[in-house]
From TrEMBL:
Encoding gene (name): murF
GO molecular function, one term: UDP-N-acetylmuramoyl-tripeptide-D-alanyl-D-alanine ligase activity
SUPFAM superfamilies hit by this protein: MurD-like peptide ligases, catalytic domain, MurD-like peptide ligases, peptide-binding domain, MurE/MurF N-terminal domain
Residues covered by the Mur ligase N-terminal catalytic domain: 33-75
Native source organism of the sequence: Nonomuraea purpurea
EC annotation from Swiss-Prot or TrEMBL: 6.3.2.10
Protein name: UDP-N-acetylmuramoyl-tripeptide--D-alanyl-D-alanine ligase
Length: 458
């Protein structure tokens, strides 16, 4: 965060000052929407959620070091009062970007955003000060909070951009106009809220490349026809990545190591270099290529990119997070969220990691699958059986039961259990586990299976 006076902030966001003794007081630290995360010199944004109203914590935030509160009403402590706190936070982020000049990279996609963002950040950090989205803070609140961590020294600003509906990316790119726009893929995540089909998802994701100026770069997945089709929606230069021969940044000689880690030869316009990722699953190749494409567009050579990818480690919890217990049980926690595409990738990765060991899948519902939800859950059940998982535990009623029934009727020999909730899943899995087992855990975030994964991992 670059230092700003309360007066400057008020002018930028259209706020009125209340209970402020010194309008020239400086905000010198990033903003927060959780009063427990306020740091001295920061700004506390009092947002009202379904369960908690940040205005009730304004005094605690100031006592914790906040210079002032961005609020929708006077709160009895120094405050900048606006009509819409979320909108004002976005305006402040846009104002800050007007005073600094990092390379702004926006990335979106149905799956893989956070892993790709983490890989890219680790490649770029070796070459200049980098600010990247924390965890999956990629919405109307998370993106401004990320931008407000940048300062005059920031060279690269990596912004994960989520889209739950059409128009979301248009709004986010208006707050932080990207110079580089990366689109990973088009899948079924949020399909229910976007219109019902892949074309609707593609329309929403393509808003990112539409926001690019003529001197920008659109980085598109050559292996996804919906993404390649976005080329006609941008004025920017196109750079393709993928395993396709037409991709300028591509992978050749892809193979899997004994630890289920993907290895390949990275090919860019500057040459070739070997890469072996410290992540499980062949699908990680696409994420690594996406990060490599951005780095290539920023002028890094193939050797520098490969070194960064080889050194990169998993940063975000709940995404194919592997924990080895002392008794030889391996927990694969992929429970942050779920879609058919990420279920497919995660199940295959866990099975590859297991080799000949016994495998147990603990699966819950995949949200927002619209009218195709039952069919997609049934297909996941059949996939579990085809991959020869030994045990399937489904959690919850409705679609998870459809998943269980499809696995049971496959005739592949998988043992199927159904439980009502997360507590039941934890109890059953704990009783079933034997030394050497590999347990894969996944569902949409609202199901809460992350708690089961953490408990099993100890």
């Amino acid at each position: 965060m670059i230092p700003m006076t309360l007066n400057e902030i008020a002018h930028a966001v259209g706020a009125s000052l209340h209970d402020v003794r010194e309008a020239r007081a400086l905000v010198t630290a990033p903003s927060a929407v959780d009063s427990r995360q306020v740091v001295p010199g920061g700004l506390f944004a009092a947002t009202a959620g379904a369960r908690v109203d940040g205005h009730d914590y304004a005094a605690a935030a100031v006592a914790g070091g906040a210079v002032a509160v961005l609020a929708a009403r006077p709160v009895g402590v120094p405050a900048l009062v606006v009509e819409d706190v979320q909108l004002a936070l976005g305006l402040l982020a846009r104002h800050l970007l007007g005073r600094i000049s990092p390379a702004v990279i926006g990335l979106t996609g149905s799956v893989g955003k956070t892993t790709t963002k983490d890989l890219l950040a680790q490649v770029l950090e070796r070459h200049g000060p980098t600010v990247a989205t924390d965890r999956s803070f990629n919405n109307e609140l998370g993106l401004p909070l990320t931008v407000l961590r940048a300062d005059a020294a920031t060279r690269y600003l990596v912004l994960e951009m989520g889209a739950g509906r059409k128009g979301d990316l248009r709004y986010l790119t208006g707050l932080a106009p990207p110079r580089l726009g990366l689109v990973l893929n088009v899948g079924t995540a949020h399909v229910e809220r976007m219109g019902g089909g892949p074309a609707d998802v593609a329309e929403a994701k393509g808003e990112l490349v539409e926001a690019l100026a003529g001197d920008g770069v659109a980085l598109l997945n050559a292996d996804d026809p919906h993404v390649v089709g976005m080329a006609g929606r941008t004025k920017a230069t196109i750079l393709l990545f993928g395993r396709s021969a037409q991709a300028q940044v591509r992978a050749e000689q892809v193979r899997m190591t004994g630890r289920a880690r993907p290895a390949f030869t990275l090919v860019t316009p500057s040459g070739r270099a070997p890469v072996e990722l410290d992540l499980i699953g062949e699908h990680q190749v696409s994420n690594a290529l996406a990060a490599a494409a951005v780095a290539t567009a920023l002028g890094l050579g193939v050797a520098e990119i490969a070194e960064g990818l080889n050194a990169a480690r998993r940063r975000s919890a709940g995404r194919l997070e592997v924990v080895e217990r002392g008794d030889g049980v391996t927990i694969v926690n992929d429970a942050f969220n779920a879609s058919p595409e990420s279920m497919w990738a995660g199940l295959r990765a866990a099975k590859a990691l297991a080799g000949t060991r016994r495998t147990i899948a603990v699966l819950g519902a995949m949200g927002q699958q619209a009218d195709a939800s039952a069919a997609r859950h049934a297909e996941i059940g059949r996939l579990v059986a085809r991959l020869r998982f030994d045990v399937l535990i489904t959690v919850g009623a409705g679609d998870p039961l459809t998943m269980a029934q499809a696995a049971q009727s496959s005739g592949q020999g998988v043992t199927v259990h159904t439980v009502e909730d997360v507590t039941g899943a934890l109890r059953l899995a704990t009783g079933l586990l034997e030394p050497g087992d590999v347990v894969f855990i996944k569902a949409s975030s609202e199901i809460g299976l992350s708690a089961c994964a953490r408990a099993l991992a100890g």
